Amino acid sequence: MKVLVACEFSGVVRDAFIAAGHDAMSCDLLPTEKSGPHYQGDINDLLNHRWDLLIGHPPCTYLANSGVRWLHSDDSRWDKMRKGIEFFLLLWNSPIEYICLENPIMHRYAKKGVGCIQSQVIQPWMFGHKEQKATCLWLKGLPLLKPTNNVYQDMMKLPINIRQRLYYLPPSPDKWKLKSVTFPGIAEAMANQWTDETITRLKTSQFF
After folding, report:
1. Which of 19, 112, 146, 205 is at 20 to 30 A from 34, Cα to Cα?
2. How far apart, in whole angstroms, are the C-alpha atoms of residue 74 and residue 71?
3. Residue 72 and residue 70: Cα distance in Å, rounded?
4. How many other C-beta atoms can be found within 10 angstroms of the C-beta atom of residue 60?
5. Cβ contacts of residue 57 below 8 Å, gap of 6+?
6. Coil, strand or helix at 76
7. How many CB atoms lie within 10 A of CB 42?
């Protein structure tokens, strides 16, 4: 499949799809951190090309439930939230048949603006990582992502600052980048489960 990974500078999802035999490219305003097919620029330049699958990571700063309290203390965040919703919907309504958009749990204002609820909520511990970070997936034409390696019991033996490592990161200019990178186990599950054969079976089953 031809796969476009939007808003990714790390190359993690892109490279997982390439490793699984797909033709994948990442796109971000930032340069890629790993050598590989990457377009540094506006995603609008690519959306109307011929893609089979879009994996999108739209910015979540003004949509995430974790930051909702700041809406009521900083009026400028409302306009930034609306722009965040517009970008989310730009990806969701793009002319690509199969779409997965990833974001943290949204606050109620963002949910209302987006107009559709997530298809599922996943955790890194479902895919072999002993960490907690609730991630929502909005899926169009794709089956739910199936857990591949549940390590919940082992993770719960760890101190909370280890299993919630990203939450306890100290302040730094790169904190947002560290928190935005997809866990490799999740990326591999996407690449291995969302294949041409899987989508064909899903479409065929709808007629019976």
Report:
1. 146
2. 6
3. 5
4. 23
5. 5, 6, 7, 8, 13, 101, 102, 103, 180, 182
6. helix
7. 10
Tell me the one-letter amino acid at 162.
Answer: I
Give me the numbers of helices (H) and strands (E) for the chain, helices first please. 8, 7
Contact 42, 23 (CB under 8 A): no
What is the set of domains in the chain, with CATH numbers?
2-205 (3.40.50.150)
Q: Exposed, middle or buried, 77 (CB in 10 Å: 0-12/13-18/19+)?
A: middle
pLDDT digits (tens, 9 = 90+) for 94-118: 999 999 999 999 999 999 999 999 9
In this prediction the pTM is: 0.91
Single-letter amino acid, residue 97: E
